[in-house]
Amino acid sequence: MDDQNLLKQLLMLGIGTTSLVAEKLQEVTDQWVREGTINPEDGKRFIDDMMERLKMDQQSLEELMQRQVRNMMQDMGVPRQAELDELRGRLDRLERQLRDLENRNWR
Domain segments of the chain: what residues? Predict the structure, then answer.
């Protein structure tokens, strides 16, 4: 399994977990409103507050996962995109220089 696939699966798991938590929060809040424990406005405010916290936690988790994957790939010696782009540019310049030299020798 490649790292991108693993990262996608972890993110999907996070999204699924967030969705499940949101659903359960709604169920519990609806029950509290029916029982008269809280009023509907407080219930909505509670859900909004909890979802905002979940979103912040999920963003922090995603950032942490991205840093960990980046560090792991760096430790394994996998080049970054910028490094590959730089090497491609150098290779293009060398190929042009080689063609120029070949053209000079054939004249």
Answer: 3-76, 80-107
- Residues 66, 20, 24: CA angle, nearest 5 degrees: 135
- Residue 78 per-residue DSSP state: P
pLDDT tens string 9-49: 766 776 777 777 888 888 888 998 899 888 999 888 888 88
Both tokens of 66, joined, read 């991205």
Query: What is the spatial distance between Cα 72 and Cα 2, in angstroms, rounded to a whole number?
Result: 12
* Six-digit token string for 71: 């560090």
The whole model's pTM is what?
Answer: 0.48
Whether 25 and 51 have beta carbons less than 8 Å apart is answered as yes
Separation CA 73–CA 79 (nearest Å):
8
Q: What's the maximum distance between 2 C-alpha atoms anywhere in the chain?
A: 95
Q: What is the identity of the amino acid at 9?
A: Q
- 25 burial level (CB within 10 Å; 0-12, 13-18, 19+): middle
